[in-house]
Write a structure and sequence with these properties.
The chain has 194 residues and is an alpha+beta fold. It has a single domain, classed as Jelly Rolls, CATH 2.60.120. The chain has 2 helices and 10 strands; from the N terminus they run αββββββββββα. Strands 1-3-9-5-6 form a 5-stranded mixed β-sheet, with no helix packed on it. It has a 5-stranded antiparallel β-sheet with strand order 2-10-4-8-7, with no helix packed on it. The longest helix has 21 residues.
Length: 194
């Protein structure tokens, strides 16, 4: 009887240890058409491997750009790199592209006292090649706007904070139509004022 109890407790500890090995954060669209998304800043009570999945509006003719900030306690080890992947499956189980992205320290005050931040942003030259380009464009990561963008970070000491800005950028034809429409509106307004 004692042996069975010890084995059962041992198994529970192993399962608990495995369960604590990874934190999964999933941000689905839930049917909302959202080309620009802001997630956070939010604080999570976890550490070790953190997998963040952000659902997008799937469109092979659009670009994908994103910015991410990860905040850790001041005494924790610095974050140097994360893994990013793009995936077009509903359960993000078959990445079409997986690559490392270097992180840099965030300048400025943290959103939480006693934290330090690290980030990457495809809007800046150091990371612009980590964003996607339209399918068939020949550019880096030519997958268009994928169904999921995932960020995989090793957070050695929790809690951690997270802020993400994610954008699905129109293809050139749509941009041209928007630009022409804007110019026509300006011309029409200036013609009225004459």
């Amino acid at each position: 009887m004692k042996r069975n109890v010890i084995v059962a407790v041992g198994l529970l500890l192993v399962v608990a240890g495995l369960a604590g090995a990874s934190t999964i954060l999933e941000f689905p669209l839930n049917g909302v058409v959202d080309y620009d998304r802001v997630i956070g800043p939010d604080l999570y009570q976890a550490n070790s491997q953190v997998d963040v999945y952000v659902e997008n509006i799937f469109n092979p003719l659009r670009w994908k750009d994103w910015s991410i900030q990860i905040w850790v306690p001041q005494g924790a080890a610095d974050l140097a790199v994360m893994r990013v992947d793009y995936d077009n499956t509903p359960n993000h189980s078959a990445p079409i592209d997986v690559f490392p992205v270097n992180l840099a320290p965030v300048a400025g005050p943290p959103p939480w006292q006693g934290f330090k931040g690290f980030y990457a942003s495809t809007y800046e030259p150091a990371w612009e090649n980590a964003g996607t380009t339209p399918e068939g464009s020949g550019g880096p990561h030519p997958w268009g706007n994928p169904m999921w963008v995932s960020f995989h970070i090793d957070v050695p000491q929790g809690p951690f904070g997270l802020y993400i800005f994610d954008e699905c950028i129109p293809e050139p034809a749509t941009l041209a139509v928007l630009l022409i429409g804007g110019l026509l509106a300006v011309l029409k307004r200036s013609k009225r004022s004459i």
